[in-house]
Every structure is written in C-alpha cells, then in structure tokens.
Model the fold of this input.
Amino acid sequence: MDKTSNQDDGSAGFGVYVHWPFCAAKCPYCDFNSHVRHTAPNQADYAAAFEAEIAHMAAMQPGRQVTSVFFGGGTPSLMQADTVSRILAAIHKAWPCLPDMEITLEANPTSVDASRFRDYRAAGVNRVSLGVQSLDDDQLKFLGRLHSAAEARAAISLARETFPRISFDLIYARPNQQLDQWEQELNAAIDLAADHLSLYQLTIEQGTPFFDLHKRGKIIVPESEQAAQLYELTQNITEKRGLPAYEISNHARPGSESRHNLTYWRFGNWAGVGPGAHGRLTMNDGRHAISTHKHPETWLKQVLDKGHGITENDILSSEDAGDEFLLMGLRLREGLSETRYQQESGKPLDGDRLAGLMELGMIERIDGNRIRATSQGWLVLDAVIADLAS
Done:
C-alpha cells in the first residue's frame, strides 16, 4: 500500500509535547531524558528556543487544530510561569487551538507551592499530573524521591483546589511489597484522587542505578506470579472504586481520560519540542518519526543557530507503522480497528494468529471490526503484540 494513503484523519486529535529536561535530582529508576544542573538554566534563552522550534514544527504541519498540550520532563514544575506562558503563546500563534484544549503540566510535590500553582493556572494550565510515586516515606526514600508522604498529600490537596483536573502517579510491585500493603496504599490514593490515576509497576531499566543494584542482587523485584497478583488486585480495586483502567496503566472516571495521551494511543499526530522530544507527523509522503537532540545545551545552541533541534526525521515503513499501531492500540481498553491496522501496515492481521490468541483468551473481539487485549492479555502484552506483528 502506498504510504501516502496513511493520512491522519484528525479524530485522535493533534497534540504538542513540550519537554523540559531538568530535574533537581535524578531518580535511581528513571531512564528518561532528564538532567541535573548545579547552575539553573537561563529560562529566557530556553523560552526563545522553544518559540523558534514551535514555529518550525508548525511550518512542517500547518493548519492543524491543537487539542492538547503536555509539559513533560524532567520536572516541568521547575519552569517559571513566564516560561510556560511564552510557550503557550507561541503554540497559539503557530496553530489554531481548541478553545477548551487540555493543557497538562507534570509537577513534583517538592517543586510546587500555592503561588506557583496559581501562576501556572493563570498561564493557562488546566490539568496537573503529580509525580507522587508512593504514600509511604520509607518507599519514597527507596525510590530516591525528594518529597515526603505529607508533602505529597499537601500537593494533591493544593492541586485539587487550583486546577479543574488533576492526576498523580504511583509505582507499585516494589521489592517485598505485599498484597495487603498495596491494597491499603491504593485505597488511600483513590481517597485522595479526583478523577485520574497512573499506576506503574516498577521496571528495572538498563543504564539506571537500580539496574546495577538489581544485577548485584541488592534489589529483588516481585516474581512474575506475584507481580500478576498485584496487577489483578489493582484492576479490581480501581474498577470497584470507579476509576477503571482505560489503558494498561491509566485509570480514570469516565470522561476524565487524558486527552493528550489518548492522542498517542489512538495513533494520532503530535509535535514534540524541546531537548529529546519525540513526535509523529503525517505528511504527504507518510508518517514521520521525529526526534530532537537529547543534550539540553546542544539542543539550545542548535535551535538558536538553525531554528530547530531535530536530529532524526524518518518516514516510517508500512511495517513499522503497523507495529506501532498495534503497540499503541492494544494498550487501550477500547482496542483498535482492524481496518485501520490494514490501512497503516498495508496488510490485514494474520487470521490464524489472531484466532489462536482469541482461543487462548488473550484477545477478544468487541464488534465486527475491533479487537482488544483481555485482562489476561494485558499481563503479557509484549508477547501478544510480538505474536500478532510477526
């Protein structure tokens, strides 16, 4: 199939991802593109660079209506409110924007206070995502977090008073974590939550301090059977408490799902700006995978010299686009369209493999054209996707 037929129809929305790469400290489990600087970056310089790169991205993808903006990191709550305002103004200048577009900013409980939250709200932020990670002080220390459980609860309360919508993250399946401990912590979190929770199992990523500790036997994560039990408990409790999973790790009251992240999972288009940002832009010659320079100071210099920090701009093959579509769509409870998969990949799903996975209870058909992973399929989603994609 000709790649030019793979056109985004706009139904998934069009987002702008803004990456702020700086953190006060690097968490030992984190493999994101984040950097600690002993001297604070010049935010005026970075704001100017963001403005330039946004204009460049808009020239590559003109006329799209922005439905969401996401400030991720790093720790975006280390940004000055004026920096946020300048970036949002640049986005409004570059593209038409939905009047009620979702504007999310990630924040750490240690880097927020009432005045800063009020200033972000005045700048236009209408959704905040807090990196809480645990409500237990000992576990927060283990995870390398700089805040206490009390600070986390105070930040959640402050966010609920300031923003129309909030979310916060928790990490579970930690070493020696028992089912009753997680049940108590999760219920406490739901008591605090407004409408959205992101719940991630601890993963040991190569290149992190945790990876080295795990390799030496200093960190032992739950075995697969216990991890599955923790996952199933998570699904049962959140479903019962009114925040069912709409994505493998994300839970929301109906209507409160993250619009920006749904753009990713529904295989929409988004512009990624900032050091180490990734984007997907569909153009006449196909779907482009775009990324920028990871090193903040190098990115800054490149943008100021050339107007953008792009280091990679590749057209995805039909096979790669189909694989990405599976990877994204099967994460969602709503599943994916087989017709859309064929449009993206240039081939239908393998009927025998699909039938085999359905017989095993890993995939189920929602209607004549849509399939989704079952709860059991979510437990081994990587294997399910690999089977379907091969």
User: Anything to note?
Assistant: Residues 1-5 have pLDDT under 50 and may be disordered. The two ends are 18 Å apart (CA to CA). DSSP finds 15 helices and 17 strands in the chain. Residues 43-60 form the longest helix (18 residues).
